[in-house]
Design a protein that fits this description.
- This protein is of the alpha/beta class.
- The chain is built from 23 helices and twelve strands.
- It has four domains: 172 residues, 3-Layer(aba) Sandwich (Rossmann fold); 73 residues, Orthogonal Bundle (Helicase, Ruva Protein, domain 3); 180 residues, Cathepsin B, Chain A (Alpha-Beta Complex); 95 residues, Muramoyl-pentapeptide Carboxypeptidase, domain 1.
- It has a seven-stranded antiparallel sheet. It has a five-stranded parallel sheet with strand order 2-3-4-1-5, sandwiched between helices.
- A hairpin with a 2-residue loop joins strand 10 and strand 11.
- The radius of gyration is 26 Å and the shape is globular.
- The chain starts with 25 loop residues before the first helix and ends in a 23-residue tail after the last helix.
- The relative contact order is 0.09.
- This is Peptidoglycan-binding domain 1 protein.
């Protein structure tokens, strides 16, 4: 309706996954690189996850446009299939004649295997892509794993890419899918756009659609981010409605009031104005926190009071923690004077406690800033040179990472809660919510924890994205140095050093020795472990370090 009015050749904010409109943010470039790595390797699974609307399918379509001519692709959009239906769909996608027995899984599997062998003999690569893979049942996922058993001495004959929402990672972490998880050669979680990318995203889509004028002022970027959370699909819907509103009102561009009205129509509510958010925030602070919590944010650290003896009859598994030997609790000025009950911990960890957990995480890093949630925490942390890592795992993984982490909990009443895992001991965990500190047995924590966590980590200088074979630049020099190659001679002889097969083998050897997936990709997990001895300023979860053979430092 508004395209002709604004001189546009196409609707700029369609939610169709058109690769022409793909805005290649840093995260989208990294996601595409992981897909390209997967098809260029020796086979196995590639996992790409992300929240709804972050652009997974669009990235995949862009990836498909870059595939070589000798690649055959089976793309499955509707994975709500049983094993037999899945095998039949793969045969249809790859133009494999169906077997005479249409009811036999083995008959379909044999046909697929014969096709893969014939394709390999002709120098062709076969790729299976499954979108919305979180909907696959475990028995279907296991059947897909079995399809990758066919291999030569050098490589597997079927490459598989799984696209899905974050719960796919949780599903693959189940014990019954451990064998499949071990075959994943590359993983990437696609996050939302950052505030500084919003204006470029909007103008990119307008440019592709043929716009010759600015229809959204750069001053609207912050509001657009707050309204959409940086999710591209939400941005598209919001901008489309805003342009329609500007057209109806006969305006040349979208202004703040039109954007707020569009948000009200799309989301059912308008974005609160700055003074409204301030009043609401202060009211929530006064009603939901104590004076100690206020001091936690706005005053200097104070010494904790003496602990009060526990009252008889309370469950010993969950009491407020005095933590005389925990420096992190003292540094935060936490109040450990009262005894808590499970009901109190549930109240502290409830949905309203998400901001307290993330503020406590920042304080462990020496940062005192008001934040509301994961997104605002990661945004503030970037200003201090820190990176966010948000994923699913277990306590063994957190012990290896050795960084305080905000945990997502499943509370007894069914709600979702959040606490900071500040310290992890052998059989007890020290948890925090604002100024409150609790001790919980690890066994009890495992029952509450959903497996989701968010932590902060400090990357080496010049780090921008995960490194793999073929990467170039100063980070490759740094990485060579970690494995014993002198830094100065390297810098003098190679201004643009390359991540070669020798370095990849060293990385994989280190990963195997350290209990990491040996994929040769240097991402957050590998970098945190590589720098654990040289990094003396980051807060620790365990309060101790251990050396790994073969690592410099």
């Amino acid at each position: 309706m508004y395209t002709n009015h604004y001189g546009l050749a196409d609707p700029p904010f369609s939610i169709a996954p058109d690769p022409r409109f793909l805005f290649m943010s840093q995260r989208h470039r990294e996601a595409l690189a992981h897909l390209m790595y997967g098809i260029g390797g020796d086979g196995g699974f590639v996992l790409l996850t992300g929240e709804i609307g972050t652009g997974k399918t669009t990235i995949c379509r862009c990836f498909l446009q870059q595939l070589p001519d000798n690649c055959d692709v089976a793309f499955i959009f509707n994975p709500k299939l049983n094993v037999l239906e899945l095998l039949s769909t793969i045969c249809e996608e790859l133009h494999i004649p169906a077997p005479p027995d249409h009811t036999s899984n083995k008959a379909f599997t044999d046909c697929i295997n014969d096709h893969l062998l014939a394709a390999h003999a002709q120098g062709r690569t076969t790729l299976l892509i499954i979108d919305e893979a979180q909907n696959l049942d475990s028995d279907v996922l296991e059947q897909i794993r079995l399809l990758t058993n066919l291999e030569t001495n050098q490589r597997k004959l079927l490459h598989i890419i799984l696209l899905g929402q974050p719960e796919l990672r949780d599903k693959l972490a189940r014990p019954e899918l451990q064998q499949l998880s071990q075959r994943i050669v590359a993983r990437y979680h696609l996050g939302p756009l950052q505030p500084e990318e919003i204006s470029a995203y909007v103008h990119h889509r307008l440019d592709v659609a043929g716009s010759r004028r600015a229809l959204f002022s750069p001053s609207l970027s912050r509001l657009l981010f707050r309204l959409s959370g940086g999710i591209p699909r939400k941005l598209n819907i919001l901008c489309d409605r805003a342009l329609l509103g500007a057209y109806v009102q006969g305006k040349d561009e979208v202004d703040r009031e039109i954007l707020r009205q569009a948000a009200k129509e799309v989301y059912g509510q308008s974005a609160p104005r700055s003074w409204q958010k301030l009043v609401i925030g202060l009211g929530a602070l006064l009603s939901a926190t104590t004076l100690a919590t206020a001091l936690f944010y706005y005053a200097e650290p104070f010494a904790p009071n003496r602990p009060v003896p526990s009252r008889p009859g309370l469950k010993p598994s969950l009491t407020k923690h005095a933590a005389p030997a925990t420096s992190s609790a003292r540094a935060m000025g936490t109040d450990t004077s009262a005894v808590s009950t499970p009901a109190v911990i549930a109240q502290s960890a409830g949905p309203d406690g998400v901001s307290l957990a993330y503020r406590a995480l920042l304080v462990r890093w020496g940062i005192r800033l008001p934040v509301d949630d994961e997104a605002s925490t990661c945004l503030q942390a970037e200003a201090f040179g820190l990176h966010c890592l948000s994923e699913s795992g277990d306590l063994a993984q957190l012990r290896r990472l050795d960084r305080p982490a905000v945990l997502q909990l499943r509370l007894p009443d069914g709600r979702t809660g959040y606490l900071l895992l500040s310290t992890l001991q052998n059989d007890h965990a020290v948890l925090m919510s604002g100024t409150q500190t609790f001790t919980l047995p690890v066994s009890a924590l495992n029952q509450l924890w959903s497996g989701r966590y968010t932590l902060l980590w400090k990357a080496p200088p010049n780090y921008r994205a995960p490194l793999a074979r073929g990467s170039r630049g100063l980070m490759v020099s740094w990485l060579n140095h970690q494995f014993g190659q002198p830094l100065e001679p390297l810098a003098a002889t190679a201004k643009n050093p390359v991540f070669d097969a020798r370095l990849e083998e060293q990385v994989m050897r280190f990963q195997r020795a350290d209990g990491l997936p040996s994929d040769g990709i240097v991402g957050p997990h590998t970098l945190i472990r590589l720098t654990r001895n040289s990094d003396t300023t980051s807060p620790r979860l365990l309060g101790m370090t251990t050396k790994n053979p073969g690592m410099k430092g």
